[in-house]
Amino acid sequence: MNAPRTGSGPRSAAVLALLLPLLALTACGSGATDGTAAQAARSSPAPTDDPVAAVREVDSVAALLPADVRRKGTLRVGSSIGFPPGAYYPNGPDSAPAGQDIDLADAVAKVLGVKLERQDASFETILPALGSGKYDVGTGNFGVTRERLRTIDFVTYINDGQGFAVKKGNTRLRTKVTDLTQLCGLTVGTGAGTTFEATLTAQKGVCAKAGRKPYDVKVYSENGATLTALQQGRIDVIMSTINGLRHQAAQPASGTAFLGEYHRLDVGFVFKKGSPLTKAFQAAVNELIEDGTYARILAKWGTGASAIDASRINPPEHT
């Protein structure tokens, strides 16, 4: 993506060029374009506690894996590294990722007695890659929807969903979004290939029915780019994950205000349809719930309000 220009002259362009990678790396953790992004990156390190360290293999759960997987001892994971608290790079892309999704996947792997071969992938490429066999499993805050259930298997591990955020001081949208007609006449930024994009696209006619100007949707491949667009006034509102937007708004440097929950969704590990791995993953998640590791991981990342009581395979979409 070409960096947008602000200010004038090569010095402004050079400053912005330095800041944009930081925005992309910290995403929900920062968003200003005046230097505070770098400060936020330094002042918001990943929590240091490690609830995954004590997790051990559980033979009865590992036995649910296909024999060839047990022999090989590895699983290929397509992982979308986006923003905290889900998955992000607290120390830059050359270091290990961190986040709730990273810890949960690592804990499940330890219960199953396998190693993860994690490959970074953009969110919108993971589901097709499961079908082609490139990955055995995918992570990236994938919400369960009727459309996805036609081609993808899910093993749930948290209840997150859809929410909205605006720039602090915004005067065009100041209340919780409960109806998409509240967005009429506004420009909404969201991620490519997400449930947010699908929802906004499917419901775009609501404004015309209400006799109002339609909302415009701008789609971005990186969360850092979406946040930058909000700060620079190119979009009016962001639609993204509840936990991500809540975390973002808690970081002063982001300059955003969370407008609350719009629609809850179960979130899970994703697999190609008919995968033999789902029962083993479900049992592993439930083992972590029962032994308390699951609660400790969510407490570490501040997402306890999204806890589930038990993992499910392919539950129906929330209505």
UniProtKB/TrEMBL annotation:
Domain annotation Solute-binding protein family 3/N-terminal: ranges: 74-305
SUPFAM superfamilies, per database record: Periplasmic binding protein-like II
Alphabetic keyword roster: Signal
Residues of the signal peptide: 1-32
PROSITE patterns found in the cross-reference section: PROKAR_LIPOPROTEIN (PS51257)
Protein's name in the database: Polar amino acid transport system substrate-binding protein
